[in-house]
């Protein structure tokens, strides 16, 4: 399996830190967060300026083929996600994500028009569950998402990366896909949901439905109402559909295997499931970072990250 990394352009960070610095509602939370690594809120505009200078130095040499090579090392995305994690109780991250994407695309269209239509991964940022990531592949403008930080459980992370690779493969296959290819999305998604929210073992709280409901309870606070409603509709009878696909004949299934198999052969049929599991994974990453500080950020991280931004 090829390693998936979140390597984003300096343009992403200059716009992200500018946005964060402009939002007065975030100021106190970000100030407290930055204080944990020895910085103050005025670090945001100075960081944005440094990233902006690096972007301006390199932008005229970028091509659709070389753009992803300009992505900065993963540590830059790790710091950004750690900062964003302190905002996970401030509502959904869809608004700030859309603002970031709009600003990046606007500058691309003005400064490097040849890149705007190609959407290189390094210039395709996204924020889900207050975790920074990038969009890779051509399946969908917003998916699949490679988060900046891996989950702490290496097995769950490997399973999620496998799902991304599978989705990328499906993007290169003409629709309708073979039924088993779509079924694999359901199999891996169900396994990830159970792993992210292990069964409690309490009477009446067992099974995959309980895991999904537990994850959705957190999701409700992390996404806009219309997205939450769409996800809720997606998960209704989802486990039943999954069981028909995996067991061929479900004891209480209202759909036949043949009908269920025909419902997993296009992106439009499985896309909402991918949106849901992506949200579950990303909100878990931000939760893991909420009360912790990665070792790489404990000793003046900006001191060494600036070395990647040296303007020659």
Which key features would you list for this structure?
312 residues, mainly alpha, three-stranded antiparallel β-sheet, 14 helices, 3 strands, 56% helix, globular
Describe the structure.
The chain is mainly alpha-helical and 312 residues long. It has helices at 10-22, 27-35, 43-58, 74-85, 94-111, 113-116, 154-171, 179-196, 208-219, 225-235, 238-247, 257-261, 267-290, 301-305; strands spanning 125-128, 131-140, 143-147. Strands 1-2-3 form a 3-stranded antiparallel sheet. A hairpin with a 2-residue loop joins strand 1 (125-128) and strand 2. Helix 4 (74-85) packs across helix 13, helix 7 packs antiparallel against helix 8 and helix 8 packs across helix 11. The protein is globular and about 60 Å long. The model has no long low-confidence stretch (mean pLDDT 91).
Helices and strands in order:
Layout: H1 10-22, H2 27-35, H3 43-58, H4 74-85, H5 94-111, H6 113-116, E1 125-128, E2 131-140, E3 143-147, H7 154-171, H8 179-196, H9 208-219, H10 225-235, H11 238-247, H12 257-261, H13 267-290, H14 301-305
Antiparallel strand pairs: 1-2, 2-3
Shape: globular
Instruction: Give the overall pLDDT as a whole number.
Output: 91
How far apart lie the N and C ends? 36 Å
List the total number of helices.
Answer: 14
* Structural Rg: 20 Å
The portion of residues assigned to helices is 55-70%
Strand order of the largest sheet: 1-2-3
What kind of oligomer do you see?
Answer: single chain
Strand content: 5-15%
Order of helices and strands: HHHHHHEEEHHHHHHHH
